[in-house]
């Protein structure tokens, strides 16, 4: 009768603990499902990394520049090799920085004396790079006017604005994935002039992209296209984003979160594979994945193009070998989830955009970002990360595993205790003995001795090896891993020692039935209260510090005090059919009630020694 209430309380308390760790559970069953997770498919930007972009390298017209400074402070210098240069002295560099700010919505705002980014971190990095060169929003607004915009789209991987300069001429500025923009480019700026893009020019661009990506830099390409004589109303994405002029690249670093590497390692120890999913270049994704310990020597990396060409049945055959998916779109996430699920995995999938919702909803544990996530993504999820941090997912899984183990603990305790109570009465009737316990005593044991410690078990902290175990199979029964045997064996012993205590006391005082019943009552209560500490571990009562759960200690002490009150308080003795017992009788009670726990603990150590 108490099981549904205790399970609900345990889940609810677990949810409260998760909130303190920055994870909000939207669907209560997800708490238990977390313990079964075998694969975490995680976005890179903001989840595995800090999402604090800083442009550190620029490339245009075959030349490479380094940019100093960190974060969103618009202070830094530009270097070509060892020489400091002025951005205004190079036309292509100035154009690269100017158009990076023009095709951009980010703003820097000052709050409490600190500059805070208002907008997308990638656009913020482009904005700050331009400001380091002395460019300002006010100056740009006097020179250019944005008249039309084609927002970023995950399918196109580009964003375009149509601008009008001071002379009234229209032109388009496009920023996006370098490999996409290279394919859209008909010309390139080289030696200060626009020339037709040939194979040598594209080779130079590819080498620059590879060089930046290999150093874990995310690359953004900038291009433009004159629109002289074209009607503004007739302009479309397709028309303005083709045959563009390639200007250059901006390479930005997004540092990995320092706590993620340890979290990935702990997940691996727990039998949980971490898969990185990103829209970044393959080389950038590989570099970050290696830094975080996600990509091992034998693991595979797959890009979106390969995913497009592959049927889901083909993906199933290799998906377990892939640790990094790069250049993917949100639609690919759904394909990855289904392939992993078809291989028998319990999949946790992160996402933040509207297009991520199908994959989040289809996964076993949908996880939405609390900071960058859209309302649609959050509504589709089971779990929301308030800090968008991968380490929070690991903490949530640890909590989910602990909640399930705590449910097993109090099931073990309650059932073993009740088996003991039933067997006491059954064996006494079979042996034609008087009843060892009266109904009011059994009711008292069920309400007080069973209730308080069982509730305290639901607050138990995780065992030290909870993240060293393999994920639990979702179809595993609650009595798996020997729990059924422990319930029956402890129940038999609890019932046996209680009946033995009754028989000894009854034979010593055959004319004092209530005295023998009080001895049996005290033995049963104490045996259960000692047994509750054994339930804290799957191994042995000695494997955990008994004071590691002070809620349990206080629950046991409370039950002991209440038992003594029932036995020794004259006003309660007639109600509970108890009598005061001698101090020497407690030696018998303590000795017998310790047998169910310490006898089996001794057998465990004997096996371990062998």
Q: How would you name the oligomeric state of the polypeptide chains in this document?
A: single chain
| CATH homologous superfamily classification of the largest domain | Calcium-transporting ATPase, transmembrane domain
What helical percentage do the residues reach?
Answer: 40-55%
Number of domains: 3
The largest sheet, given as strand count, sense and whether it forms a barrel, is: 11 strands, mixed
Instruction: Give the helix tally.
Output: 23
**What do the pLDDT scores average to?**
89
Distance between the termini: 42 Å
Structure notes:
The longest helix has 41 residues, at 390-430. The chain is an alpha/beta fold. The two termini are 42 Å apart. It has 23 helices and 21 strands. The strands form 3 sheets. Strands 3, 4, 5, 6, 9, 10, 11, 12, 13, 14 and 15 form an 11-stranded mixed β-sheet that branches.
Feature tags:
610 residues; alpha/beta; Rossmann fold; Calcium-transporting ATPase, cytoplasmic domain N; Calcium-transporting ATPase, transmembrane domain; 11-stranded mixed beta sheet; 8-stranded mixed beta sheet; disordered C terminus
């Amino acid at each position: 009768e108490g099981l549904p209430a205790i399970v609900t309380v345990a889940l609810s308390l677990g949810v409260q603990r998760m909130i303190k760790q920055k994870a909000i559970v939207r669907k209560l069953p997800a708490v238990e499902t977390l313990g079964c997770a075998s694969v975490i498919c995680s976005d890179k930007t903001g989840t595995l990394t800090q999402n604090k972009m800083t442009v550190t390298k620029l490339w245009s017209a075959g030349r490479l520049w380094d940019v100093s400074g960190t974060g969103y402070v618009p202070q830094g210098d530009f270097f070509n090799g060892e020489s400091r240069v002025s951005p205004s002295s190079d036309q292509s560099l100035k154009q690269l920085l100017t158009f990076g700010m023009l095709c951009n919505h980010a703003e820097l705002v000052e709050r409490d004396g600190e500059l805070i980014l208002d907008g997308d971190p990638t656009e913020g990095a482009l904005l700050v790079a331009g400001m380091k060169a002395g460019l300002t929003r006010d100056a740009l607004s006097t020179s250019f006017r944005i008249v039309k915009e084609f927002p970023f789209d995950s399918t196109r991987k580009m964003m375009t604005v149509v601008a009008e300069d001071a002379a009234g001429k229209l032109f388009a500025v496009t920023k996006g994935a370098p490999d996409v923009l290279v394919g859209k480019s008909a010309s390139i700026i080289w030696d200060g002039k626009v020339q037709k893009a040939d194979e040598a020019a594209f080779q130079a661009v590819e080498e620059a992209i590879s060089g930046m990506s290999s150093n874990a830099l995310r690359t953004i390409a900038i291009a433009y296209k004159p629109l002289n004589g074209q009607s503004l109303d007739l302009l479309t994405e397709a028309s303005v984003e083709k045959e563009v002029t390639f200007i250059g690249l901006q390479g930005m670093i997004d540092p990995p979160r320092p706590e993620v590497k340890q979290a990935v390692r702990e997940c691996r120890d727990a039998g949980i594979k971490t898969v990185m999913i990103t829209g970044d270049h393959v080389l950038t994704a590989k570099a970050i994945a290696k830094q975080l310990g996600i990509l091992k020597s034998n693991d595979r990396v797959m890009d979106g193009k390969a995913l497009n060409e592959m049927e889901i049945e083909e993906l199933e055959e290799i998906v377990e070998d892939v640790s990094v998916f790069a250049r993917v779109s949100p639609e690919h996430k759904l394909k990855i989830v289904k392939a992993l699920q078809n291989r028998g995995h319990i999949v946790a999938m992160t996402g933040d955009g509207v297009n991520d919702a199908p994959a989040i909803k289809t996964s076993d544990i949908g996880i939405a970002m609390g900071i960058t996530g859209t309302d649609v993504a959050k509504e589709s999820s089971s779990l929301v990360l308030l800090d968008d941090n991968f380490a929070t997912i690991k903490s949530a899984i640890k909590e989910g595993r602990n909640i399930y183990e705590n449910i097993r603990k109090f099931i073990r305790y309650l059932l073993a205790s009740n088996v003991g109570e039933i067997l006491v009465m059954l064996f006494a009737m079979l042996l034609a003995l008087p009843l060892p316990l009266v109904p009011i005593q059994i009711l008292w044991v069920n309400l007080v001795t069973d209730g308080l410690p069982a509730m305290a078990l639901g607050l138990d902290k995780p065992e030290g090896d909870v993240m060293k175990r393999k994920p639990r199979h979702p179809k595993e029964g609650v009595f798996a891993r020997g729990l059924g045997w422990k319930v029956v064996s402890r129940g038999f012993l609890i019932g046996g020692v209680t009946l033995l205590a009754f028989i000894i006391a009854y034979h010593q005082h055959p004319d004092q039935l209530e005295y023998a019943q009080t001895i049996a009552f005290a033995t049963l209560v104490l045996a259960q209260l000692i047994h509750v500490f054994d339930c804290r571990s799957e191994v042995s009562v000695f494997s955990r510090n008994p004071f590691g759960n002070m809620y349990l200690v206080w629950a046991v002490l409370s039950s002991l005090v209440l038992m003594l009150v029932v036995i020794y308080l004259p006003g309660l003795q007639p109600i509970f059919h108890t009598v005061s017992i001698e101090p020497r009788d407690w030696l018998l009670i303590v000795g017998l009630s310790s047998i169910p726990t310490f006898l089996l603990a001794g057998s465990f150590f004997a096996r371990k020694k062998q």
